[in-house]
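Sample entry was shown:
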Amino acid sequence: MSKAKDEPTYVRIAEDIRSHIKQGDPPAGSMLLSEAALARTYGVARGTIRQAVAELERAGLVVSEAGRGRRVVSNSPTDARRATSSQYETIAEALRKRIESGELLPGQQLPGEGATADEFGVSKGTARQALQMLAAEQLISSIHGKGWFVGGADHARTRADEVADHFRREIGSGELAVGSVLSGENVLAQEQGVGRITIRRALALLEAEGIVEKRPGKGRVVKSRPEGT
């Protein structure tokens, strides 16, 4: 049996596409066919095509572009690095405009590297480069254990901080009276439109301030009103 037949299908497809690219079909600068179109061409599943294209990306022959697909660069590593550089610079510029327009406010938490990568259709490494570029410009900052925030670290506010503020206002106004029992984490998460972990972090802040406390058999109870209310 020949070596070619022993190779996985996606490897043979990647080699075939690589051969076409080297012959200028498609030429550098143009878009590679979509995964669906390539799957029809080779008569295989999209998952197999995805593996084949991943091989081409690792080889620097194609790069992903947000919302467009994969662009053919060339067989030159220099061209591949230039394309990747362009990607993170494009992402940085998009985020920079959101900050300058006020869409992203000082202290606001930015989506994580994974979410940014998904939004722009790039790798987490490329997303990280974009965020690091903005950090070098002092437009955003990274807070250990929390994430990326617009502006300096002294203004960083997480969603948990915002939820904790909401509860402080309700307790300070008397809407939640001292001695009242808070709803469970699942209910509070649904009411606030956040995850349970965010609720847990917000309540931990209030517990540390002595505003709420855990009581056996009851759950979390309002212990006192915030200072100054």
